[in-house]
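Summary for the steering committee. The consortium agreed at its last meeting that each partner would contribute one worked example illustrating the joint modelling workflow. Our contribution is presented below. We chose a case with several input lines so that the handling of multiple components could be demonstrated. No manual editing was applied between input and output; the record is shown as generated.
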Amino acid sequence: MISLIFRLIGRGIRDLGLHPWANIFTLVAVTMVSLLAALFMFTLHNVNQELLKTRGQVQMQIFWQSGTAAEAYNRQWDKLSKLDGLKEIRTFTPDDALKHLSEALNGEDDFAWMKEQNNPLQPTALLAFSVKAGVENDRWATDLLSRLKELPYVDKVHYNPLQIDLAKGWIGLTRSVIWPIIGFLGLVVALVVGNTIRLSLMTRKDEIEILYLVGAKQWFIRLPLLTGGALLGLTGSSIALGTLYGAQIFFEDVLNFPPLFIKLTFLPPDQCIALLGAVTLIGMFSSFVAVRG
Amino acid sequence: MISLIFRLIGRGIRDLGLHPWANIFTLVAVTMVSLLAALFMFTLHNVNQELLKTRGQVQMQIFWQSGTAAEAYNRQWDKLSKLDGLKEIRTFTPDDALKHLSEALNGEDDFAWMKEQNNPLQPTALLAFSVKAGVENDRWATDLLSRLKELPYVDKVHYNPLQIDLAKGWIGLTRSVIWPIIGFLGLVVALVVGNTIRLSLMTRKDEIEILYLVGAKQWFIRLPLLTGGALLGLTGSSIALGTLYGAQIFFEDVLNFPPLFIKLTFLPPDQCIALLGAVTLIGMFSSFVAVRG
Amino acid sequence: MIHLNRLSYSFGSNWALKDISLHVEKGEFIFLTGHSGAGKTTLMRLLYGALPVKRGQATVAGYELHKLKRKQIPDLRRELGVVFQDFKILPNRSVYENVALALTVRSMAKSTIDKRVRAIIRALGLENKTYIKCHKLSGGEQQRVAIARSMVVNPKLILADEPTGNLDFELSMHLMDVFKQFHTHGTTIIMATHSREILRTVPDAKVIHLDGGKICEPPEHILSEMAS
Amino acid sequence: MIHLNRLSYSFGSNWALKDISLHVEKGEFIFLTGHSGAGKTTLMRLLYGALPVKRGQATVAGYELHKLKRKQIPDLRRELGVVFQDFKILPNRSVYENVALALTVRSMAKSTIDKRVRAIIRALGLENKTYIKCHKLSGGEQQRVAIARSMVVNPKLILADEPTGNLDFELSMHLMDVFKQFHTHGTTIIMATHSREILRTVPDAKVIHLDGGKICEPPEHILSEMAS
Ligand SMILES: Nc1ncnc2c1ncn2[C@@H]1O[C@H](COP(=O)(O)OP(=O)(O)OP(=O)(O)O)[C@@H](O)[C@H]1O
Ligand SMILES: Nc1ncnc2c1ncn2[C@@H]1O[C@H](COP(=O)(O)OP(=O)(O)OP(=O)(O)O)[C@@H](O)[C@H]1O
Ligand SMILES: [Mg+2]
Ligand SMILES: [Mg+2]
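What follows is the complete predicted structure of the assembly.
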């Protein structure tokens, strides 16, 4: 019995070679639509990461009084970088700030408008905290803010409470949008892969009819077809993921330049497995459906 | 001759009915992959618009001296809104600002940290200028900045020159990334649509062979098939665009809430036509190729 | 082996078979004759379960076709060997594979399959085509593959629909010898044929003549063939 | 009409035709006989351009097949009416459409097509199947559709490969009458057949007997049929 099952699975694999063109066409379609789906997921994943990085956090910018001793604010920076919930700290000495500014202006020396304002640059630190979705956040942020303000030498702290709204909004949006999109994507992949496989089985309609006529049982006919469908799905989605991985490595740093600093990251393993599994299952399922009709 | 051509085109359309299942499967696959492509273009279009809105521009925030008469700054706001290159102006009276702030804090009345700072709110205006990619921008921005600073009652003007870099970076990125993506998308659509149509023509292999055997010339066989392929492509991409349009109207305002304020806009007509044309041509072309083999 | 009671079948409004009643005992040899379109193939298709029995009763090899469930059809077909009028062989498989198919479907051991397939291929003179794909065969060779596939299973009942239409006289005679061998070993055979030369080869066979879907008295010339 | 000079054809290493030399004049009636696999269908396929002439020379209806360009094949085929051994009719088109196809392909006017198609369908006794899809026809009915399609174009040359394999005696005789009518109107006919009864119907026909791909002297029994 088990040897028969293996024989039938083997037959399913060998049968793919009997209809090379039909199967190549199917494979290309399956691969391409998987690739498109993977790319979609990839884009979503990276946009999501990027937006969470810039939006899903609270930023506080601390300005020290001009003329604060370097030693003093350096010590404070060390302490600040150990704060709870801190995701990132970027610090600028007055010299840093001036350098950045002149670089941004392409080395032009026209700082007239700045000097007019009589505004000597201050040491600053930009603190980014990640937002945990929850009710207590506003309170937490205002508490933190007042603590920061009370630090010695600190001149002022800028903090935009709108950012909390933004972050919360984005997290909620992600939750409410990502699943419908993945569902729709699944539908598209299912319909394209499914229909292509059913179409390719139409070229084998006669063969299936003949098998029935000589007394084959359902599973005798279906098992090889299911195997073939699964193999097409698995191969197609594997090729798609492989291609995407190659592309990701190749283009990893294509967006990684100032001021974007976006490093493309590959799909997490669970999403890869979900894609492989889904396409394979679709391949099997549509082979199954195709034979019923 | 011309009547014969019309007869053959008619035959191509009628022949679709002879193989309903094969054609329905093909149509669904074509529609779905067109829809996916359209959705991809749609997302890109909207992300692009959104990013251009927030990134491809220079923002200057003007702070008036506290206590400036409402009449005075109102008159200036009118003038500012007529500035060249201005895309958006948002104005806040001191009362507005306080209201927003208290709303953002969910009506809590704990403004202690603000009063501590002894910082009475000022009238402000946020001016957004669109950036034209070019070399003279930095100069233009600094010129504008100094002009704004010289306005009467103006206390200070915030302007981040980094934003120019960001805007330029995004515009350049769009230029360098959008075409490869569209090219890749075209490839995917071409391969899926093309292979599906070739696959569906495999179910008609015998028919084509028989036509040759009874003395049909190339064009007699190809014209109806080209018609059928074109029709499949056109119908599929039209359904896809129609569905997307419906979805866009339905979900137009799904992201249009504070603080995102993203109003989804439909693909511009030229992109729609490009999609319809491309899919139709692919349908024709792959029918053409299928018969050659 | 076969009991038909007032069996009728219609395609839409076209009654291809009308009120057929027939009893075939185990081991009988039946010729099915009749004009083109008389209903011979339709009767065969009912017997092997390709068409459902909607009116009348039919029992084949112990299976009551008018009560048959879909799942039982493969079991019925495993009792039979069928030669289809249009062969129904797999064009892109070899002769060996096509013949072996009937046994593979019955889950037989590989060595048994091999022995029986080779024997029947030799008996039908196809040994030098064993590994040729069937779409490369001539019409008569394809027909012999179809016959080989029906015989290889050693069925209780062979339904052969026009099995010699593409074969020349000598080969037809040889094939009839093979059919008769099966017959003498107890296989029931129902053969639709147009050829008088074929009728002549089995003088003790019964002739069922169809005309417009009804069983009729065979015409004179057929009776005389059988008598000669 | 047909001139073959040392024509050979091989499928891989299998020589299906060897050194065939043959002259057929306009208006001749030729029977092509030979065992199953002798090369009859292969010869036909060479004549209608489905296989390329690679060795030897062949001229059919004025077309030199050994020099024929792909683009000329449809022109050659428009001179011919071919009855294929496996019918090659479109299963999901009606009888009418299948027969009309041969004329549509030749860009004829609709009214002419209609008249000629109906006439030939009537002549072959298919008038009550005119609008039935061909996959619903019996074997013999399908064969008659194939014959009708070859005749409807009034060809100079008819190539008929086993055109009566699925037809009963009376119908075969009737069809031979139709073929003979075409013959008396000057059509050249080449007919591959296994049936002795068919041979007998055209006593003045020439018999070309193939054996293992070569033209041989027809065996005794065929000669005696023709003489009787
Ligand atoms: N699927 C079908 N749908 C409609 N009519 C059909 C179908 N199959 C057969 N028929 C009709 O039923 C009648 C009997 O067909 P059947 O195939 O049984 O004839 P037959 O005796 O086998 O003829 P032949 O000797 O030509 O093979 C014919 O008129 C045929 O056209
Ligand atoms: N496409 C092919 N590839 C390989 N061999 C072929 C092919 N077609 C035919 N043959 C072989 O060529 C030989 C002649 O075949 P052909 O079809 O001409 O025979 P035939 O005389 O028509 O026989 P029948 O009376 O059985 O129809 C056969 O042995 C056949 O197996
Ligand atoms: Mg029949
Ligand atoms: Mg032949």
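Chain B touches chain A through 61 residues (CB under 8 Å). The longest helix of chain B spans residues 162-202.
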